[in-house]
Design goal:
With about 325 residues, this protein is an alpha+beta fold. Helices cover about 40% and strands about 20% of the residues. The chain starts with a strand and ends in a 12-residue tail after the last helix.
Length: about 325
């Protein structure tokens, strides 16, 4: 094992603790890749030699230190590469590191659904399942030409390699990008898509207001859906132009949500994060000559003035309807 995929079990109000937890990982290796809002990849090849311990043993030390120093538990997957570590994370639980056996990678993957591979979305998974390729073992055994006809030449080749256990990925050191995030937890696990969309509407409105208050725009929006079984799905989309316009953020959030194709999913919380922040004066705005869009922007400006004067909870009549 050389790579760990760590997911810290951060409460919603403690997401700001991630940089400190990344610092904990960097005490073992400088090759740490942040996976906001609550995860990271760590390449421990050098650490295994330096400390004379395996990656799984070092994972136990990391877990203990995270609990002792930050009061945060974590789940950890270990594998020969970042893709395999992410797959292993799906079976990990607090206190037990799930490791992919280096000498039995194809066997470890064989019975897993195709959606277990990072990067395989709902549409690709559905297409493969329609042709009986519902497990990674069946995908690995299928002719390469068949996969390429179904999902494209490049995607088919990459999927065929990954299903066979070939992990060409690498951990790219980075930092937590400057971002703003807001979470909408549900009091009970929520199945109703309309309630999901209302939560996204509220979250996008809050993000837009916070961005405008800071005179910032965001270039990227990330949606994280947390489920009842403690798993999560994260999708990121680059905006057509950097913006702080709540309507544009809402449309993008809706698009990512619809692309997930959730059916009867028990959702525990939705997290919306604005990333790639930049000063608003450096952003350009494409004129649309759409009177409805201009009206919404004027309403936003008026609502922002009201909030600045009376507080963040203040609203103006008709603002929500607009």
């Amino acid at each position: 094992m050389t790579v760990l995929c760590v997911r810290f079990q951060l409460p919603p109000e403690s997401e700001a603790a991630l940089p400190g937890l990344l610092g904990l990982l960097e005490e073992f290796t400088p090759v740490v890749e942040a996976l906001p809002p609550d995860g990271a990849l760590a390449d421990l090849r050098g650490a295994e030699r330096y400390f004379g311990r395996s990656a799984v043993e070092l994972a136990s030390v990391i877990r203990v230190r995270a609990l002792a120093l930050h009061g945060v538990d974590c789940v950890i997957g270990a594998g020969p590469g970042p893709m395999l570590a992410r797959v292993a994370l799906r079976d990990a639980r607090p206190g037990v590191t799930c490791a992919v056996p280096e000498d039995a990678v194809p066997e470890f993957l064989a019975d897993r659904p195709v959606a277990a591979l990072p990067g395989v979305g709902t549409a690709t998974s559905r297409t493969l399942c329609e042709y009986g390729l519902d497990t990674l073992g069946r995908v690995a055994a299928a002719p390469l030409s068949t996969l390429q006809r179904l999902i494209g030449a490049r995607a088919g080749r990459e999927l065929h390699e990954k299903a066979a256990g070939v992990d060409r990925g690498r951990v790219v050191p980075n930092g937590v990008s400057r971002s703003l995030a807001t979470e909408r937890p549900f009091p009970l696990d929520e199945l109703d898509p309309d309630r999901h969309r209302r939560a996204l509407l509220s979250a996008a409105g809050e993000l837009g207001a916070r961005l405008r208050a800071l005179d910032k725009v965001c270039g990227t929006l990330t949606l994280t859906v947390r489920y009842a079984d403690r798993t999560a799905t994260t999708r990121t989309r680059t905006l057509r132009e950097p913006t702080a316009h709540s309507a544009a953020l809402t449309r993008t959030a809706y698009g990512m949500y619809e692309a997930l194709g959730l059916q009867r999913a028990r959702v525990r919380a939705l997290v919306l994060r604005a990333e790639s922040l930049a000063p608003a004066e450096q952003a350009s705005h494409q004129l649309t000559f759409d009177p409805v869009d201009e009206k919404v922007r004027r309403v936003e400006e008026a609502a922002d003035r009201v909030r600045a004067k009376f507080g963040p909870g203040a609203v103006i009549p008709g603002a929500l309807a607009a």
